[in-house]
Design a protein that fits this description.
mainly alpha, Multidrug-efflux Transporter Regulator, Chain: A, Domain 2, 2 domains, two-stranded antiparallel sheet, MerR-type_HTH_dom
Length: about 120
């Protein structure tokens, strides 16, 4: 499939896809005219890359992780340590977001009801 098709199917911009290719995260073949062509299996890989990026991993970490997902036996102790650090960072971030959500919930619970606000502003 062409880069535009891959972009539409994954939600990744064409620019992002070119960047992923430059970083070695995805592969493309080239037509005689130089156009990129991607196998359909790249769709799942791009979706995974986007998920890992959304979780806060950088492309260098993703480049280390992707081969181990396909071939778990290739994982090294160093990569395992790195993944533990990333997992712990995500756990801390989740805890912070939960605390923020709970604080917002307390403010909302203590606020006047929305109906009261609309009634007083309409007067």
């Amino acid at each position: 499939m062409r880069v535009g098709d891959l972009s539409r199917r994954t939600g990744a911009s064409v620019r992002s896809l070119r960047y992923y290719e430059q970083r070695g995260l995805i592969d493309a073949t080239r037509t005689a005219s130089g156009q990129r062509r991607y196998e359909s299996s790249v769709i799942d890989r791009v979706l995974l890359i986007r998920q890992l990026l959304d979780a806060g991993l950088g492309t260098a970490a993703i480049a280390d992780v992707l081969p181990c997902m396909a071939h778990p036996e290739s994982q090294t102790a160093q990569l395992t340590r790195r993944l533990i650090v990333e997992r712990d960072r995500l756990t801390d971030e989740i805890a912070q977001r939960v605390a923020t959500r709970d604080a917002l919930g307390q403010l909302i619970d203590a606020a006047p009801s929305l109906d009261d606000r609309h009634g007083s502003s309409a007067s």
